[in-house]
Amino acid sequence: MPFVRIDLPDTISPQDAQALGDAVHQALVASFEVPPDDRFQVLARHAPGALVCTPAYLGVAHSARVALVQITCSFGRTLAQKRALYAGIAHNAAQAGFAAADVIVHLVETARENWSFGGGVAHYAPVAS
């Protein structure tokens, strides 16, 4: 049930944006045991100046093709699973033509009751008694 938002410069083609979305989803399936059909993503391309990323941080250099990936998911994954996810995204992104250093990932964990998949229903909330 992850919700993925990928923000990219508008110089990235729609096809490359989709390839990165595929790369992120494949890593989620492999590392977080997300079902293959559990895919909710926003792929947003932004005009110059709309994305701000320092050219280098913590020894990692970023180019003009930087991708900001935010993944909102439920609590419960181990640190090992999170590390595997980050590594999987970087590997898959490189296969899709992105530099691994250009993929910044931000994981946001939230309680399962905070999700509704439509119809005004809190699908994962405990049933009221």
TrEMBL record:
The protein's matches in InterPro entries, at most eight in alphabetical order, are given as: Tauto_MSAD (IPR037479), Tautomerase/MIF_sf (IPR014347)
Identify the domain of life: Bacteria
Origin organism lineage: Bacteria, Pseudomonadati, Pseudomonadota, Betaproteobacteria, Burkholderiales
Write the protein's name. Answer: Tautomerase-like protein
PANTHER family reported for this sequence: TAUTOMERASE YOLI-RELATED
Native organism is Pseudorhodoferax soli
